[in-house]
Amino acid sequence: MNNTTTIPSGKDIQRKWYVLDAAGKTLGRLSTQAASILAGKNNVLYTPYIDMGDHVVVVNCEKIVLTGLKANKKLYRRYTGFPGGLREESFVKLLARRPEAIVEQSIKGMLPKSKMGRQMATKLKVYKGPHHPHLAQQPIALEGKA
Fold first, then answer.
1. Higher-confidence residue: 27 or 145?
2. To 10 degrees, what angle do helices 99-108 and 27-39 make?
3. Domain residue ranges of the chain, discontinuous segments joined by +
């Protein structure tokens, strides 16, 4: 009987590419699925202190949906750094202006707030339409829950 534990090296990781289609999907459910892949939790060799995650490409982010009345009530706030510089923008306006920011912010908020979390976030790519420039990586299409 062999009682050894395999600890993977960070150099030997074979990273895959996945495509998530956001059309008609709920923002939170899509984000948790993407964050889990970025963190590497779908990998059998998952190790919490090593970035084992794969690359995630999200397309059609302008077609993301929120449940209930959240689309009308949700606000995105940012601070410019100047006195009185708090800026607020509703979900509807930000979706019309920069839908990538909504999906990106949602996914990044589910990653660890550390160096490793920022490293994981670099593997996230979000695009407005159905096309993306990562076809050479032969990404695998993922079907998620609506």
1. 27
2. 50
3. 15-142
Whole-number pLDDT of residue 144: 59
Count CA atoms closer than 13 A to 30's CA, side-chain side: 30
In the chain, how long is the greatest CA-to-CA distance? 67
Give the sign of the dihedral formed by CA 6, CA 8, CA 13, CA 19.
positive
Distance, CA of 51 to CA of 61 (rounded, Å): 25
Class of CATH domain 15-142: alpha beta
CB atoms under 10 Å from CB of 8, counted, come to 15
| Cα–Cα distance, 58 to 36 (Å, whole number) | 14
The helix (run of H) or strand (run of E) holding residue 91 is: helix 91-97
Closest Cα partner for 125 from 143, 112, 113, 137?
A: 137
Six-digit token string for 102: 């909504």
For 9-48, write each residue's pLDDT tens digit: 878 888 999 999 999 999 999 999 999 999 999 998 898 9
Cα 57 to Cα 103: distance, rounded to the nearest angstrom = 11
